[in-house]
Amino acid sequence: MMDYDALIIGAGHNGLTCAAYLAMNGLRVKVVERRKVVGGAAVTEEFHPGFRNSVAAYTVSLLNPQIIADLDLASHGLRIVERRAQNFLPAQDGASYLLTGEDRTYQSLAKLSERDALRIDDFNRELESIADVLRQFVLRAPPNVVEGLTLNALREAYNALETGNILRHLSIEHQRLLLDLFTWSAGEMLDGWFESDLLKALFGFDAIVGNYASPYTAGSAYVMLHHAFGEVNGKKGLWGHAIGGMGAITQAMAASARGHGAEIETGAGVQEVIVERGRAAGVVLDDGRTIRARYVASNLNPKLLYTRLIPPDALPEPFLKRIDKYRNGSGTFRMNVALSTLPSFTALPGDGDHLTSGIILAPSLGYMDRAYQDARTHGWSREPVVELLIPSTLDDTLSPSGEHVASLFCQHVAPELPDGSSWDDHRHQVADLMISTVDRYAPGFAASVIGRQILTPLDLEREFGLVGGDIFHGALTLNQLFSARPMLGHADYRGPLKGLYHCGSGAHPGGGVTGAPGYNAAQTILRDHQAIFL
Question: In sequence order, what DSSP letters do the residues of 507-528 get, joined into one string?
């Protein structure tokens, strides 16, 4: 007798999305979460008395609009506001580039390069034309590679044919561009388009976000494209803020799932996945309790799932060898700081819409490349890449009146330090470096910091299960994308054991707060359930 139809491991945003869709289709669903709160890495917590912020994930764009609508997240309290400016890039020589939601062309860019100002619209159109087609792949399983002539193989052949038909909507020139985006470096592409360092840095930053690589690393152009899929309130390419922080998203998802009958239990870590006769049949919790279910869906990093929760003798040896090589590590060091006052940047002093934007402190592709090389050699960049976001400029619920909170998303740092030491031994030294980096662009910033929260790659792994601090649950490299995510033969959200499914960012379409892997896994489980009970 099964306790539930479906059991979800992990109440991150993808696990909650999967649970909500399964429950709204009549399945008996249980979600178990190791932490005391739902949300995984998309949570809002108080980190200093009176100051709250999004602890890990920190900004909104990739959350899929169909999921927002289907789960009716607005009725459960979710409200997303647009940044009044999208990005601000200051340089230490006083130059700057401010990108607003309306002006992606001439006015702010012409000061840096009239040539680039004339080309930016063409570049954005090229990128958007590819993104428009690839958005059609977000809420569908990619073609899965299967062996033998079976009914499943025929179904996947039809899926591949549909995929080809979608790609046919791209002109041959755009198909060539798509191939370039999957194989080229972002730096190579951007150097061919533009001359302004700050403009190239704007796009180059998207290529290294969560990607422990140089913007000149082959394949980094795709990571840049991955971040172009988003929209806010129906407006493509924009970034926004969830009022109440990222936890407002997952709290709304949890409320939707519960409203459809799903049970969610926090403080319930999983010790082991139960395997019986080659099938996942439930889990054993850390407290010794057993929960049985017909389907088990994991929201965990695939490497974490298969190396820590499933007995190795239950898995095929070739699968184990491959998962052991699954690449993680995104070079991320996260901080939240409480501020007594807003920063004032030398390149654009005082208050203004630029303080609502993503403020990128990395003035050139060369700067980003040196940061990566430095991290590989030293363990962290002595001149790091920092994105500063001040959500309290858009949301006054996060801090006391007149004071503010800021997120610092910092790169590059090595997931594992080259000298073998622990991140616990260096966390405060590196945190000081990140703050002093901001202070170079905005003098007085360091003096305004009255509290801080530090999350090294090791902290991110221990607290949120982000192996090596990897925010994407696995690198977005060509051998870990689309039909190869998490590996060839398992792109259909089904694991190597019957009844086991992947619903987290280690499955297509990958990382970011999208909800898409959870949605796609739910559709696969529902099809399998229907096939059994028809």
Answer: STT-SSS--HHHHHHHHHHHHH
